[in-house]
């Protein structure tokens, strides 16, 4: 299996980028990912002032996927996420949902033993996930720092981007130009204090190309659900976008009028907060696959 090393990273998703590696549809490969601080935090005494802020949220890549063309969907299946044996979390005054109550920059280095994170003596089973993963944005959408989630993906910080899940990204450039980083060994929905359990990783992926299908926002498929991942300036905007795209998928896939699709969504669709702390907020709108199978949803995209 090809191993794509973690040294070559981007800090911005752009429409035109030089790729570092090529992969083929159906190919499995490993991507080494850096933590969101590029491993700069070596001890709990470290302060923010010592950090080089130009090296935050590195994403390994871009990776060129053969056969991916503008107007397709790039399918990315997450086969495995291996994380290192320790990671970092921190608070920063003013940052996160309760930032007004934070009195100091506190850094915690959290060990991981036998797949459990040890936090102040509490053992928590890890659930590794990918924070930043995306493709080249559309030319008209401009450039996006890796810290910000948008239609191309990016820093979506979504707990369900985990082992066994599959992402579908709209392709805006030849080769799609996939890049990823910022794994978390653990994170709760919302990521309220601004970090998850930030950790370097080795991510095994399998990619494929779905020709002639395109969506505004990325899709995410888990064992049980298919969902839209949308971002916005606030929770209302992100929620509206996620719900609107999912209702439109229901309408097109099941050949319903808007009202029936809207009503069905109200019966079965869960809105979940992915994160509240990045430069844009991310929400997911999730429907059980028993109601809307992924194949059906994809068929419905004209
Ligand atoms: Ca993140
Ligand atoms: Zn992170």
Topology at a glance:
Layout: E1 2-4, E2 9-10, E3 12-13, E4 21-23, E5 28-33, E6 59-65, E7 73-83, E8 86-91, E9 106-113, E10 116-119, E11 122-125, E12 129-134, E13 144-145, E14 153-155, E15 166-170, E16 178-184, E17 198-199, E18 201-210, E19 219-221, E20 225-232, H1 235-254, H2 258-268, E21 270-275, E22 281-288, H3 294-300
Parallel strand pairs: 1-5, 4-6
Antiparallel strand pairs: 2-6, 3-13, 5-18, 6-16, 7-15, 7-18, 8-9, 9-10, 10-11, 12-14, 12-16, 15-19, 16-17, 19-20, 20-22, 21-22
Helix pairs in contact: 1-2, 1-3
Bound molecules: calcium ion and zinc ion.
Ligands in the model, by name, code or SMILES, are: calcium ion, zinc ion
CATH class of the largest domain: Mainly Beta
The biggest beta sheet reads: 9 strands, mixed
CATH topology of the largest domain: Jelly Rolls
Instruction: Identify the CATH architecture of the largest domain.
Output: Sandwich
Classify the beta-strand content into a percent band: 35-45%
Total of domains: 2
Structural class comes to mainly beta
Q: How would you sum up the global shape?
A: globular
Strands, total number: 22
Which homologous superfamily in CATH is the superfamily of the largest domain? Answer: Acetamidase/Formamidase-like domains
